[in-house]
Structure formats: C-alpha cells, structure tokens
Amino acid sequence: MKVTEKISLEKIRNDRKNPIPDFDIKDAVITHYLHNNKNGVSQSFKKEAINYTNEIVKNYFSEEFIENYTAENFRLDFLNHETVPFIPVENPRFKFIDLFAGIGGFRLALQNLGGKCVFTSEWDKHAQKTYRTNFGETPFGDITKEETKKYIPDGFEVLCAGFPCQAFSIAGKRGGFEDTRGTLFFEVAEIIRRKQPKAIFLENVKGLRSHDKGKTLATILNVLRNDLGYFVPEPQIINAKDFGVPQNRERIYIVGFHPSLHINQFNYPQPLNKKVSFADIKEKDVVDTKYYLSTQYLQTLVNHKARHENKGNGFGYEIIKDHQIANAVVCGGMGRERNLVIDHRITDFTPTTKIKGEVNREGIRKMTPREWARLQGFPEPYIIPVADASAYKQFGNSVAVPAIQATANEIIKLITEKSSSKHQDKIA
C-alpha cells in the first residue's frame, strides 16, 4: 500500500467483513480530532482518536504497513476527512458548538461568519449521515448522556442549540433550574453552567412563547437570567422571509451574553426588505414525474379540504404560485401538501412509482427536496445523501440559514467589540 493511499471512514462503516464496534462514537471522536488538530481543543479528542485509529489500522492494514508507518500524524492523515463541500475555517474568528445540530443549519451560518465548530451533537442517524457528508464530521450522539458531554471542549465563545420544546412541570414552584430537570433544555443549561460561553443562541418554534400559557418560556428565561446570570434580552420572533428566502417561517430566537461582558443591550437584525418568491428557487429543469400527484391522491386532497371548509376550518392543501412565498416547511405530510406548486413542464406522464390512478394533467406537484433546501437557505453545493422522505424531514426540522446568520452576525459583532474593549482596558 502506498503512503499516500487513504481509506474512507464511510467505507469502513459499511464494511460487514470488518465491523468496528461502536463505530459511530469512534468516527465522531476521530473526525472531531481531525478537524481540530491544529487548535487548542484537539486535546479533548486526541488520546481516544489515536486509540481508535490504531484499532482501525489493525483491522484494515497489513502488519508490515503498520510496522513501517506508526507515526501518529500519518495514521490520522490517511484517515483524513474525505472531500466535502464545507470544510472548516482555516483561521477562525471565534469557536462555537452545535447542539441538536440536525443537518448543520447553525454550522453553515456561523462558518460563513468565520467561526469554527469545535463540537457537534445530533442523535438522529439519518441526520448524522447528512451532516457527515457535508462537513466531514460525525456528530456525537445523545447529549443527555455524560459520556457525550465529556467531549465538549473548554474555551469556545458561542453555544448554539435548536433544542426541542418539552413540557415543563412548574406548578407551585419558582420555575428555576431545578424545574427544568428531565427536559432537553436542562441539558443545554447544564452545559452553559459548566462551560460559561460568552454568548448563547437558541432557536425554537414560535409556539414556545405561548406554551403552557407562557410558563415554559418564563422558566427558560428565569434559568438563563437568574440562575446562570446571563443578560438575555426579550426573545424575538424572526421570519425567514425577511432575510432573503421565500418562506413564511416564524421562529423564536433567544440570545444571551455572559455577565463578564457587561452587555445590557442587544439589537436583533432588521429585515432586508428584499422581495423574494418561489420563482427564485424553483427547479430550472423539468422535475421528475415522481413528484407529480396522482389523480386519486389529488382528489383525496380536494375532498379533505372541502370537508374542512364546510366546517368552517381552513385546513387542507394549498398551491403556491410562482410569485408567492411558501408556507413553512415542516415534518409530516401537510408540510408538503400546503406547499404544492403548478409546473406544466412535465412531458412524460408515465408513473415512475407505484401510484393509484394516473399522473394528474393539471401540473400539480410537490416541491422537491432541493427546493425545500433552498427555502431554508442551504446553498447549492449542499449534498442531499438520503432518500426523499428523510430529506423532507431533515429540511423541515432545520433552521433557516440566512435568518440565523443575520442574528449570529449581530452576536459576534457585539462580543468581539466587548472583548476588544476589555483587552484595551487591561493594557491601559
């Protein structure tokens, strides 16, 4: 085997002849080390990365090869990250961690601002695959486990988390740190308590504001402000359509700043006032027949909508015209059914999948996963390595990258300014 030969960790993952026990965690450790072996946080992964690499070497290479090339750097070099579209920033302005990472919406946004991701966590295996394909790094798994938390390095500036909303039981209590135990927010709060990042950036569904009559949000803010001591301005509802993507997607953003920075004011980004529409992200080429609705399915949707309209409800499918903006893309069938489009460019009506009825002649189709990616602000080089069903779920769960980036930019500007000011005061 030549010195320059590399082996794909993805190939190892799929190799049934030489399975590596607990491969996912080992892949996470190795890839995190590889992405951080030139900065101060690599020590969090170094020892185990070398041990795991030795294990892989022994499984895949001859004894002669191992004897001749045992240098740590070489072992890690031939396992080095495969070619991926979004490589780490070479000389980062700041470091951040990406919790409940999904498919990397936060990471894209903060890398675009010059940030370096030093730890990422996501438990969903399909999302991990998409993340790995695009960033060359496997996310660590369940963040509720101490064995996962132990890998989080010290010294990063920003904690990002699109944490899921769970019910909090706060009846008769003060709504503080203890009341969040057993929820996923507690895991975020605990990491903040341990690591003391300069800034935090949390994202959640708009309904968090009214969840449990506002008690859930009040509990979260009480923990961040009173228990952890962070300055947290009033959370704001941000709409993706105001930041250059044609999607009506409202999400609540919560930001916070470490007390040592003495920050007492924060301005969320202003809308871009840029006119956008579905036509801006519509597929340029003829779309595969599989995305067009069958006559029977379309009739089912028509009947369903009519039933609800008769009851005075507004539920049902919706067709987005080229000059309009899409409804929020979400998980589940209605995310697609409320974002149907008309596209008459179809020329072959032969079904490519098993359907009941025929392909409709009205040109009504679902948006493609790539169109959903564009609605969320993911750039064209972003690879979609999973089946359509998983892709819809992943983009539906993701953050809108441009809106996240605009807000993160304000965060970074402020902590950079305050950190610089503190440095000047020390010199003086």
UniProtKB/TrEMBL annotation:
- Protein known as: Cytosine-specific methyltransferase
- Residue span of the signal peptide, if any? none
Enzyme Commission number(s) of this protein: 2.1.1.37
Xref: PROSITE patterns = C5_MTASE_1, SAM_MT_C5
Show the taxonomic lineage.
Answer: Bacteria, Pseudomonadati, Bacteroidota, Sphingobacteriia, Sphingobacteriales
What Pfam families does this protein's entry cite? Answer: DNA_methylase (PF00145)
Q: Which GO terms describe its biological process?
A: DNA restriction-modification system; methylation
Q: Which InterPro entries match?
A: C5-MTase (IPR050750), C5_DNA_meth_AS (IPR018117), C5_MeTfrase (IPR001525), SAM-dependent_MTases_sf (IPR029063)
Question: Which residues are responsible for catalysis?
Answer: 165
Give the record's family classification: Belongs to the class I-like SAM-binding methyltransferase superfamily. C5-methyltransferase family.
Keyword Methyltransferase (UniProt) = yes
Q: Name one GO molecular function term.
A: DNA (cytosine-5-)-methyltransferase activity
What keywords is this UniProt entry annotated with?
Methyltransferase, Restriction system, S-adenosyl-L-methionine, Transferase
